[in-house]
Amino acid sequence: MRVAASGADLHAAARLLGVAPAALAPELLDPGARLLVGDDAAAHLRRRWTDEGTTEAVVVHRSTHVTDRAALLAVASAWGCATVRDAGTGRVLEVPPPAADAPLTERFAHLAALAATRVEVAVALARDTGRDHRKDDGSWSIAADDAAHDAAVEVLRPLGVPVLSEERPDPSVRGDQPWIVLDPLDGTGNFRAGLPPWAFSAALVHDGEPVAGLVVDLSSGRRWAGGRDAGAQRDGAPASVREGSTVVAPSGRVVRVPATAWRVRVTGCTAVDLCLVADGSAGAWHDLDRSGTHVHDVAGGLAVLAGAGGVALTPEGGPLRLAPDTETLIRFVAAASETGARDLIAAVGS
């Protein structure tokens, strides 16, 4: 079974489940729901919190021929859930982790989803504790930042690779060693103001390339995941770039509208910005007209972008390479195609 992503999928799922399409239509757009559909089976799942404070994927409704446990467990794993519960029978399946000898990208994807779930709780519990202050660059550092970092690092530690984060000094990384980079709470200013989006972002990087990434918009539940050899998904359905005239840009006092763009959007959350390029909601992103962006802000989104078929180029037009350094600012263009990226570089530079 696959995650339903179209009107045709919706009608097929409704027929198999024996309900009106209108009963399922809102679920197709809800990040907290999934419709799975196959040739002769369908299932409707929702993510929910248990009384013990864990998350589970609940099978709300299923056709009688659902035998594909792997699909149910995959949805639960990507949601960061520990269990799958059948609402009709009460039966519970544990979500197993990947095998110890599974590829590092698979083990990272599983634990990153669990980390995002832990961060959801941590930032909510730390909200409005009064331990907020402005950093030297004018941005906010709040109690939720530290809580998010601690929660994420604890989950990712079993991978045994260095973890870089906005909230801590960088550990040393050998030249041939993979590393993880986190922005446990991207869009801190948005979070503090209660203005969506704010997000969890994590990437696995090797040889300067983000090979796997996860970005979760914690304000809405939207999820983007992907990597170089794994494609990209938005809320479990395949995602891909597309050319467009909307450019997303980092927040700032001045935002230029390049000649190649009809409109510019500013969300205040860079990780989500890059995912909007990856899923085709926007045509491009850039920070060429400002001082730059940190690696922890962009690595997760860049992994998703690569999986979706997009490109990231430096101001000089070369491929972007990431270094294990959360202090240095980097400048680049992210776009649906190399042609689009080069056109944007020329437009911003003119």
TrEMBL record:
PROSITE patterns: IMP_1
One GO-annotated biological process of the protein: signal transduction
One Gene Ontology molecular-function label: inositol monophosphate 1-phosphatase activity
UniProt KW Cytoplasm keyword: no
SUPFAM superfamilies cross-referenced by the UniProt entry: Carbohydrate phosphatase
Annotated positions binding Mg(2+): E166, D183, L185, D186, D297
Membrane-traversing stretches: none
Keyword Signal found: no
Protein name: 3'(2'), 5'-bisphosphate nucleotidase
